[in-house]
Amino acid sequence: MQASLLRRAGRAGRAWLIYRLDQLLTYPPLVQVAVLLLLTAILISAFAVLALAVHPGDAQFPGASEALWWSVTHFLDGGTMAGDPIRLRVLALGATGTGILALSLLTAALASKMGERITDMRSGLNPVVERGHVLCLGYAPNVALVARELARSGQRCTLVVLAPEDKDRIDAALRPARQVPGHRLRTVVRTGDPRNEQALLRVAAPSARAVIVTPPATLSDDDSVQWTLSTLLAMRRVAETGFEGRVIVEARHTEARELLSLAGEPGVAGEGQLAMDIIAADEVVASILAASTRQDGIYFVLRHLLAFDGCEFYIEPLPDSLVGQSFDEVHARVHDAILVGVRTEAGEMILCPAPASPRKLARGDRLILLASGFGRWRLGSELPSSQLPAHSAVPDPTPQHVSIVGFNSTLPHLLRELSAILPTGSRVQVVAGENSPRALPMVEDLSQKESAIQLSCDTRPAAPLMHRGQHEMCRADAVVILGNEDPHDENGDASALAMLLRLRHGQKVSGHRARRVVTEVRDPRSALHIAPRRGDCVVSSGVVAMLLAQVVLDPDVAPVYRELLSPRGVAVRLRPRRVYVSAGSATFDQVLANARARGEIALGFYPDPRSHGQAQARQRLEEGDVELGEDAWLNPPWDTRVPDTEDAQVVVLAHERDTPS
């Protein structure tokens, strides 16, 4: 009977011990460590008391402190029991064995805690402790391009990316940005859903100076809008705790702007206003495609202005010494930079003011400068007096023939842009092939609204027509090849490049060649193995990433780029050298003075007359950038000689209404 009771008690005690150990393992590792340390202290004290009780008056234990020290040393170091007398060995063996067991459990608890931390770091679940950082919500290939531009800016910046995708994959994509020479960019990747408020707090969203919202590339157009809206609503909820930054939203299509803007409107989704800029990718790409059809080199100049290539737009305070002076007076004295406009205290943006404007600069105005960095300009001697050449007139624009091959969401915006900028009497022909049922109503609808140019749609497949060189697009002034925008098609750029090859072959067969060919791709590296030709350019969504980076670092420049990319207003143009200076030796300061006399602002030269070695091209490739074409030289020193080569042109800002094609 007693044996049965003992067995039952033993099983109950064993079950109790296992249950308590199981409960202990459910606690956080720090709690486990604290419990084990407490048990260890109790066991050490128990063996000290046992030693005093079993061996009272022993010379080795003259007092409680000595007994406690004996217990501690045997717990921590089993070797100390080797010198114990025989009478103490049993007790020493028990203390050492218990110590080994306790320390093993303590080590396991610490290892568990360390393993948990390592797992958190690898999975991107640790909180971010930052202020004034740039936060990117969502991941798409453009994020790596934004990181590259932030690195090239040379500004100290921390980029935090929050996305549900694999952390290691995003880290690998951001690695080229950390290879930019002289960069001051830190990148942090965290795993989580940007639509979750707790995830936003984990990446210190309220403390960010700028938040980029970019939908994953794998989502459909409709799903991307819903994802972006949910993210903005979550961000707005978090922003109510004191967000002082700005949200920059990348939308695939212009039509989403109206809905997404409601998330920031006061009194709709919340009480206050959420400062927000919405950049529509199709609108930006369409503007650059349209501008690229008008002149050779326009794309490369715009790309240079959008990228951080050592010459960007900066908005800086007006010094007190310049208050009361005219724009032309200040423009003539600015060295190491080019004054292109003024932002008034009311927020009005005035680019390329009319010459001899009576308006005086007022306190509170800010200068819009093209410079190599913020504050990198000075006041000096004035420009020379203007001396326009005898034959400086620019011929009137002639009607253009533009062929558009393919169909995607950029087409309607491209047609509207071309309708606004092409001279009266121009023709635009869309060769949509199998997408003709979608393109034809769009072309017919716009034809009824636009009478200045002729719009038409060719329903025949473009590929065989171009390959045989029988289509009139081989003799067009400009050909635009639209890319495939399907995010699930990994070889989407191949269709646009295939059309480019067919067009080149058709031009070779027919003996005719379009003056300009503009090809749209998602990734500019797709065209790396196709030899560039003069008049050809490859436009990619990378320009959207460049614009995002500019607005992130200085939201005030957004209206400047919006103006330059709009079909009306101030535009970037290329003019022949003879328009500004006569034949012979001349310097850039004379070009600046003569351009201002024409109501324009000279920015530099195209193409860049300086030679760049293979080292720079290789560095660009390692950074994930491929430039297929010639570059521009903007903001050269005043004493720079004006190139006198046959293809030398001057880059200027001019009002579109006065700008011929």
From TrEMBL:
Q: Which Pfam families does this entry report, sorted A to Z? A: Castor_Poll_mid
* SUPFAM superfamilies cross-referenced by the UniProt entry: NAD(P)-binding Rossmann-fold domains
Q: Entry's InterPro entries?
A: CASTOR/POLLUX/SYM8-like (IPR044849), CASTOR/POLLUX/SYM8_dom (IPR010420), NAD(P)-bd_dom_sf (IPR036291)
As for subcellular location, the record says: Endomembrane system
Limits of the CASTOR/POLLUX/SYM8 ion channel conserved domain: 283-374
Q: What is its main location?
A: membrane
Q: What GO cellular component entries does it have?
A: endomembrane system
- Membrane topology, record value: Multi-pass membrane protein
For this protein, the record's Gene3D superfamilies field holds: NAD(P)-binding Rossmann-like Domain (3.40.50.720)
Record bears the keyword tRNA-binding: no
Residue intervals passing through the bilayer = 30-54, 90-112
The record's keywords, sorted A to Z, are: Ion channel, Ion transport, Membrane, Transmembrane, Transmembrane helix, Transport
| Protein name, as recorded | CASTOR/POLLUX/SYM8 ion channel conserved domain-containing protein
Which species is listed as the source? Hyalangium minutum
